[in-house]
Amino acid sequence: GEGRLVAYDIRRTDDKAMGQSDIRSPERAMSQGTASCLTWKGSPLFKSVFDFAILPMLLWELRPGSVFEIGSGTGASARWIADLIRSFGFKAQVYSADIVPITESYEGVHFLAGDCRSPPTLFGADLLCSAPRPYLVIEDAHVNVREVCTYIDQFLLRGDYLYIEDNLSKDDDLKA
Fold this sequence. Notes:
Elements: H1 8-13, H2 25-31, E1 39-40, E2 43-44, H3 49-62, E3 66-70, H4 76-88, E4 93-98, E5 109-113, H5 125-130, E6 135-139, H6 145-153, E7 161-164, H7 171-175
């Protein structure tokens, strides 16, 4: 009833599912149409069919100037997001950090080395103060979540968007 842009503490207070997804595990798995990991251009993309639906809508609505992804994994997610941005005609750049950086190059993507145990190594203050806005920050690293979100928060302004993936497993950190 309050829309999508609701403060986390308000969203949790009004949560009728009590921290559980409305879509249970067997249904989530079956909705993908396959038991294997979804892929993008042949690389494993650790996203669900729901991410495939939600993120393009969010990108279209937000029209980010910069996307910051915390947790590159195989790099498929950053490539997928860059491809979506390009298909929409936007000029945003994707910055994707992981402790083991992706060594390949890809148009519109900057793969960076960073360690969630030391959040300033993910994206430096200079970049987070100067990149084009609005920002879409995607946290998907599962390591030191509280400190990573605290670090990133100091650079976010009204109109920027923080997207926490797999948030049920991070509930204690997000509550803090």
